[in-house]
Write a structure and sequence with these properties.
The structure is a single chain. This protein is mainly alpha-helical and 129 residues long. It has two domains: 46 residues; 62 residues. The protein is 82% helix and 0% strand. It starts with 15 loop residues before the first helix and ends with a helix.
């Protein structure tokens, strides 16, 4: 809702040209943010594609595992594989999952900011009516 006359905080008086210039600058900034947001989505899609490829590589490695054999070489191979699998599991669990959850939280925050901005924009439109 728009404040009634006399309830605006004290600011310098703006001319119609000033308001139009401010609106033009605001429009440019919003368009810049839309491009930035689209770029983030594109990069997130690329990263999701990379994660899918990594999952495919994990599947290939799993299928290529040698059959267990009772030899010292096989035990060494499995010990080394176990070490690297453990490191990869920790990396996925601790680092990647945390980053994806942070992105999800920030996207949720952006939704709230967009809703709030839409309400402010509607108030601006209502003032023109």
């Amino acid at each position: 809702e728009s404040p009634s006359a006399g309830t605006w905080p004290e600011t310098k008086t703006l001319s119609g040209e000033d308001v139009a210039a401010d609106l033009a600058n605001l429009q440019l900034r919003m368009e810049d943010l839309a491009c930035l947001s689209a770029n983030v989505v594109r990069r997130a899609d690329e990263q999701a594609s990379m994660l899918r490829k990594h999952a495919g590589l994990v599947s290939s490695v799993r299928e290529a595992l040698p059959q267990p054999a009772a030899s010292a070489t096989a035990e060494q191979t499995y010990a080394s594989l176990g070490y690297h699998v453990g490191k990869l599991q920790r990396h996925v669990r601790e680092r990647l999952a945390m980053l994806v959850q942070d992105i999800e939280r920030r996207v949720d925050e952006e939704v709230g900011a967009l809703v709030s901005g839409g309400q402010l924009l509607q108030a601006l439109i209502d003032d023109l009516s």
